[in-house]
Amino acid sequence: MVSPFFSLASVLLDIRMLRAETIKDLVGLDIRGFHLNRLIGAGSYGAVYESSSGTEKIAIKASIKGSDILNEAAALQRLYYCQYTPQYYFHEETPTPNGILHTIGQEFLGPDLESLRRKTPWQAIKRPTLVRIAWQALSCLQAIHSYRLVHRDIKLGNFAISLPTGPNNCVTIKIFDFGLAYNYMDENGDLIDDETNPNFSCMKYCAFEVAMGMEPMPKDDVIQLSYAILYASGYDFPRKLRCPPDELLEWKRELLRVPAQILPPLAQFLTPFYAVLGELNDLVPVDHEMLKQKIQESLPAHNASANLYIEMQDGEETLV
Ligand SMILES: *[C@@H]1O[C@H](CO)[C@@H](O)[C@H](O)[C@H]1NC(C)=O
Ligand SMILES: *[C@@H]1O[C@H](CO)[C@@H](O)[C@H](O)[C@H]1NC(C)=O
């Protein structure tokens, strides 16, 4: 039995020696033969670096929080053969002169959907592109749920496009950041309780039932995705999130109950999709194929399962 004081002491040591500022200052370091070239993202979780070994380019996520990194590494290993998630390379605890550094090496992806949304005119993604994004994002959820994983942190910033391939710069959407992911079911189909008991109702953009105190389940990933789709359509979701909590809860409830009355004008066309979300529950497995068909029905004149491409428009990378 390891003394709890011992582990607490080592955590304190890590945090003291490797503070949040230094986690963003690791360019030049070599990890598993990969050279950290450039900081490409940073947040409360730590930092992400573009890294390379010869011609091979990967992303290395660095954190001082060993538990999140371990959780993410376990999820990515589980998803090793999944084409909708970044390829996993390694997980390592690297001793540095400043303390222990927890890192994950994973596939290098293109920009995330939140940065792509911000670059579009009026910060609104056009309908034909939006339905193809929604289709592929639902395919991402379908894939991870088939591995009995629930993501629990679905937002535009946690989907990214792959690097473009072919003469037309074809891309696919992948879901990433598995720091809060959870293996919710065993191979017999029995639910596994999360003993760490995280309180997801504190997350403002959580799904309605999660805000009501339920544990996040696969259908709640879908509900969170439905908020992200609204945001991508041009709706000011961050402003809605700043409402008083009871008003926000009421909005989430009504969006499930009477979507046609709640959907903003820009997203009205998606009523067929939003109309079935209120019927989702935790007893019946999520029918992702049916949800994708509802996306297709929302814009019949366009093919929602057609490929996405990255194009330069007015000097900006644009998803079409
Ligand atoms: C979870 O957080 C919410 C709001 O942040 C709070 O009202 C609730 O009491 C918390 N629940 C638990 C079990 O701690
Ligand atoms: C939609 O696009 C997909 C992928 O390119 C293709 O396989 C499918 O046949 C298309 N469907 C229609 C109805 O055009």
UniProtKB/TrEMBL annotation:
Signal peptide bounds: 1-20
UniProtKB keywords: ATP-binding, Nucleotide-binding, Signal
Keyword Nucleotide-binding among record annotations: yes
Residues annotated as domain Protein kinase: 34-320
Pfam entry (one): Pkinase
Highest taxon in the source lineage: Eukaryota
Binding site for ATP: 61
Gene3D superfamilies according to UniProt: Transferase(Phosphotransferase) domain 1
Molecular-function annotations in GO: ATP binding; protein kinase activity
PROSITE patterns, A to Z: PROTEIN_KINASE_ATP (PS00107), PROTEIN_KINASE_DOM (PS50011)
Keyword ATP-binding: yes
PANTHER family: CASEIN KINASE-RELATED
Name of this chain's protein: Protein kinase domain-containing protein
